[in-house]
Design a protein that fits this description.
The chain is an alpha/beta fold. The protein is built from 22 helices and twelve strands. The strands form two sheets. It has an eight-stranded mixed beta sheet. It has a four-stranded antiparallel beta sheet with strand order 9-10-11-12, covered by helices on one side.
């Protein structure tokens, strides 16, 4: 019995040391962020994070306890044959989660949860953001860790396990009780509430809090509580939240008209990761868009415009359906919900427009195809519709080929038409053709060069299209799908990460306004566009007409798991995990209530779809 108890304790220590090592590995790998925090915060990530480490170890020890309990009457040889493969299996899964999380965090800005499993049927696209050499290196590193663990396990545990003798039946209840007691480390709390992510948050720095999270626990928790994809928030009574949220969208019959043609063609160009901070005319610190800058001289520029979330699947829905992103899930992953959404495709189809969606990548990725089919898009053009010789990037067809195809089709398309176009070359891993504009080889520089390339493709397209009648009859809307953490290593919640450009161009615009400074976001596009062509946007319940006489200046965006509410007088960023304000300015208290009401109303609507 004593041998089993000692082994149980040593086995616990084995797993705790591994999780401490995993946190250290995370801090080292994410050095652009970890170098910005103090040594004290480094230490505190381990002190606070140990609670989730203990909880994760507790889950493993529950199974281990059952193994010891039901092998009471056998020798150590049998126990070893069971415990070794069990340890190798669990350790391998844990290592894979830890290593995948290292790279995902760079791209997503939050610790890995169950979300990547939504992409498991598309491993090529899921890994497209990681360069091949790095993928190979990480695979080798994973294999090396697993191999080292097997060696360590064998060296430390083999002789000890084999030395275990059969024990008396009287000890069986003791081992069962010990196994049951593992609920204590699993909960990591003696209070009413079990351990949760918020319990390891300790800093005003989001990265420090993220580093304290045990990623294996985070994935298990996400999978165990998959219903969180329909998570609701209860900041106030639902009827109060509804009244506040609906009050933010006052409808007005009067709107400033900028379109001088009754049924213009409409083309929305969704630009991958075009953050305002890389656009010179929007005072971007890193100007990589000379063509976009030049185009603003003959169009209408929106200077206070925001993405509603931080991923393409959420941005697309915000732009085309006027539906805000959700903090912990994405509606595009649930086809039975997206079929209930309004869309510009549905609305414009109904009034005689031909509708199309263009994307140089795989339309099946991230459930995009189901969304566009539910949206009643008449034609979908994706990577399979291009010559296979043009498929020369990890994501698919580069932007120059996409714009060439678009140019040809626009000149032969029956009017009026509505097309949405989604670029991809400025997506991680930022591998683009041509000579780089910016010197260097780090990811931030690669991102700038990819934006510069996409911008050049944009410039070439408009140089050609302006010489055709299509320009005279079309409204072009240029808008980003989301912003970017690069350059500057913006944190996941930062305002600068969510500020994006929107530019209206085309011969159908009058010259009455050249610049719009009101605050808006992607979800406002449908209502604004429809009002310009005298169509009722009533189906788009979250969308506001940016030119309405009763327009209320605000933008709302979400990150994982929190939100920001921005007005012309205040800003507030709120973390739902720690229930704390991350940043605030101006008279924000009433706007914080509006933001909470808006999120509560949104997630209630999401749940009921």
């Amino acid at each position: 019995m004593k041998q089993r108890l000692k082994l149980f304790g040593l086995y616990s220590l084995f797993w705790l040391i591994f999780f401490l090592f995993a946190r250290l590995l995370f801090l080292v790998y994410e050095f652009p962020f970890s170098l910005q925090i103090s040594l004290k915060e480094w230490i505190l990530t381990f002190i606070y994070g140990i609670r989730l480490d203990i909880s994760t170890t507790g889950y493993i020890l529950m199974v281990t306890g059952l193994i010891f309990t039901f092998t009471t009457f056998v020798s150590g040889k049998v126990i070893y044959k069971i415990l070794k493969p069990f340890t190798i299996l669990i350790f391998s899964l844990c290592v894979m989660i830890v290593v995948v999380d290292l790279e995902l965090y760079k791209n997503w800005g939050y610790r890995m949860d169950g979300t990547p499993l939504l992409y498991i049927t598309k491993p090529k696209e899921a890994m497209a953001s990681t360069e091949m050499w790095l993928t190979i290196l990480l695979l080798l590193f994973t294999a090396g860790l697993i191999y080292a663990a097997i060696k360590i396990f064998t060296k430390i545990f083999k002789e000890r396990i084999l030395a275990i003798k059969k024990t008396n039946i009287l000890y069986l209840p003791v081992l069962l009780i010990l196994t049951g007691l593992m609920i204590v480390p699993v909960r990591a709390s003696f209070g009413i509430a079990p351990v949760n992510t918020g319990m390891v948050y300790f800093s005003n720095n989001k990265f420090s809090n993220h580093a304290a999270v045990n990623v294996v626990w985070n994935v298990m928790n996400s999978l165990a509580y998959r219903k969180n994809t329909e998570k609701t928030y209860q900041f106030m009574a639902d009827d109060v939240a509804k009244e506040i949220a609906e009050g933010l969208h006052q409808k007005s019959a009067n709107s400033t008209k900028l379109i001088k043609k009754s049924n213009p063609n409409i083309v929305i160009l969704i630009l991958e990761s075009f953050s305002s901070k890389v656009i010179g005319v929007l005072d971007g610190k890193w100007d990589a868009t000379p063509e976009f800058n030049s185009l603003t001289k003959e169009g209408l520029l929106f200077t206070n415009f925001y993405a509603n979330a931080s991923r393409s699947d959420k941005g697309i829905v915000s732009i085309l359906s006027g539906y805000p992103g959700q903090p912990t899930t994405s509606i595009i992953k649930t086809p039975e919900k997206t079929q209930s959404l309004p869309s510009l495709f549905k609305t414009l189809n109904a009034i005689g427009y031909e509708t199309s969606f263009y994307y140089g990548g795989d339309i099946d990725f991230a459930n995009m195809k189901s969304y566009f089919l539910n949206a009643e898009t008449s034609k979908i053009v994706s990577v399979d519709d291009f010559d296979s010789k043009l498929n020369d990037s990890k994501w698919g067809v580069h932007d120059e080929h996409l714009f060439d195809r678009l140019y040809e089709d626009l000149n032969n398309q029956k009017e009026p038409f509505f097309n949405a176009v989604f670029t991809l070359s400025s997506h991680d891993p930022f591998e683009v053709p041509g000579k780089p504009k910016f010197e260097g080889n780090d990811r931030a520089i690669k991102f700038l060069n990819s934006v510069y390339y996409s911008d050049s493709c944009l410039g070439d397209f408009f140089t050609k299209i302006k010489k055709t009648e299509v320009w005279d009859n079309t409204l072009f809307i240029l808008v980003a799908d989301h912003g970017s953490a690069r350059p500057g290593n913006s944190q996941n919640h930062d305002i600068e990460k969510f500020k994006i450009p929107m530019l209206w161009l085309g011969g159908v615009l009058n010259d009455s306004i050249k610049r719009i400074d009101v605050i808006g976001s992607q979800i406002d596009i449908p209502a604004t566009v429809l009002k310009q062509i005298d169509e009722n946007p009533q189906d788009f319940m979250f969308s506001k007409d940016l030119f309405s006489e009763t327009y209320f200046d605000f933008a709302f965006y979400v990150f994982n798991d929190g939100f920001s509410f921005i007005t012309d007088t205040s800003t507030v960023i709120y973390d739902n995990v720690s229930n704390e304000i991350i940043l605030s300015s101006g008279p924000f208290k009433s706007d914080l209530k509006k933001g909470k009401a808006y999120l509560q109303y949104l997630m209630n609507d999401f749940k009921n779809r």
